[in-house]
Amino acid sequence: MSIQGLIVGLGNPGKKYAGTRHNTGFFITEALIREYAAEPLSGDRFHCLLWRITLPQAGEWLLAEPQTFMNLSGDCVQPLAAWYRIPPHRILVIHDELDLPPGRMKCKCGGGNAGHNGLKSITQRLGTPDFFRLRIGIGKSPYPDDTINWVLGRPDADSIQKLKTMLPTIFQVIEFFAAGNAEKAVMEANGYK
């Protein structure tokens, strides 16, 4: 099987965390599974749920949901990328972003981790920050000292609707990225309103 790259949705495993803001990455991967008729693979050795999807003009890609808990996401991503010989620039990590309001997204390669423990873990394990990130806005807590409860809380109906409305554009961004047109992917994501 000729795998072209890896898409990772970040979140925490288990029913307790299902549907929380911090599991936005899982929400997107589950939408991708439906959209692209994903084929399940065994991800046990990589501590993840794993699928193979075929993207238009981009071939076969792996789609993963780490089951390590957020702050150990790199313990899934690095071994998976190493096994399939996927370089960092062919990895797209989808995650929640406090610094963007609901209904906004940004795409970029590299940069800091902005306190996101999943990104921090992946950067440490890969030995480089130079992988792509698709940042999905969840907004900041109205209470500045309450970030943990905010990210582990569940979004309201309006925020969920905004996320669902974004999905066709998110698929487009991923298709551009996977087809090798990262610049177009970035423009599409960053220009979305």
Set down the secondary structure blueprint.
Layout lengths: L2 E7 L14 H12 L3 E3 L6 E8 L3 E8 L7 H10 L7 E7 L7 E5 L7 H10 L5 E6 L9 H5 L5 H22 L3 H9 L3
Parallel strand pairs: 1-4, 1-5, 5-7
Antiparallel strand pairs: 2-3, 3-4, 6-7
Helix pairs in contact: 2-3, 5-6
Describe this structure in words.
With 193 residues, this protein is an alpha/beta fold. The protein has six helices and seven strands. The protein has helices spanning 24-35, 74-83, 117-126, 147-151, 157-178, 182-190, and strands at residues 3-9, 39-41, 48-55, 59-66, 91-97, 105-109, 132-137. Strands 2-3-4-1-5-7-6 form a seven-stranded mixed beta sheet, sandwiched between helices. Strand 2 (39-41) and strand 3 (48-55) form a beta hairpin. Helix 2 (74-83) runs parallel beside helix 3 (117-126) and helix 5 packs antiparallel against helix 6. The longest helix has 22 residues, at 157-178. It is globular and about 45 Å long. The model has no long low-confidence stretch (mean pLDDT 96).
In total, the number of strands is 7
Shape field: globular
First-residue to last-residue Cα separation: 38 Å
- Structural class comes to alpha/beta
SSE string: EHEEEHEEHEHHH
Could you give the order of strands across the largest sheet?
2-3-4-1-5-7-6
Rg: 15 Å
Helix proportion range: 25-40%
Number of helices: 6
Average pLDDT rating: 96
State which percent range the strand residues make up: 15-25%
Low-confidence stretches: none
Instruction: Report on the biggest sheet.
Output: 7 strands, mixed
